[in-house]
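Long-time lurker. I teach an intro course on protein structure, and each term I like to show students one example going from raw sequence to a predicted 3D structure in token notation. This year I'd like something fresh instead of my usual example. Would anyone be willing to generate the tokens for the chain below so I can use it in lecture? Attribution to the forum is fine with me.
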Amino acid sequence: FFSWLGSDDFFTQTANFDAILSRFALGHRDCLIFDIAFIDDYGVARRSVAHAPTPNNYLLGKLVLHYSSFWRRSTIGTLRFDLQFPVAADQDFFLQLVSQKKLAYEIDNRVGTVMRLGGASTGGTARILSANRETFHVYKKYMGAPLAALAVAIKLLRKIVWKLTASRYPILKEFTNSMLFAVAGDKANSPK
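-- Reply from a regular --
Happy to contribute to a lecture. Here you go:
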């Protein structure tokens, strides 16, 4: 199978590779998608729920949680990243993927990946706006300009609503800071 992570993100124990391989072996599925927990600098977690990998979900501002997805290698085929999009190349790649055929997928609503906020697309308002300008150009390739503008507007609106209404809760027992850093192998930065 195929998956990837951002440089400061990591899989949880839920995303156990042996268990994932056995799930792929049980039946024909192209991908397995888990939820994501976003962690800010203060150790506050927010959860993002997995959505079906369809072009319509992109139009509705619901991204495929690619950092928490595992794909059958044959599904990827010869697709390549378009490097003219330094921040949104991943979205372009997944729009290519979900546009090429109907995918057999499974959604597992347990957290499979922990992402730290503050990167190129989540590190403040200026970065979010810059990333969404790039996202508009990616979407335009697949949807045309009017639908791309609508999709980016919906995505931004969903992000604003999510930030305003997301319950900021202390990290649950299974995601304590010390465990997060220990799972990531980053004991040097583990909280005291």
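Some talking points for your students: Helices lie at 17-26, 55-59, 73-76, 89-100, 125-143, 145-165, 177-184. The first helix runs from residue 17 to 26.
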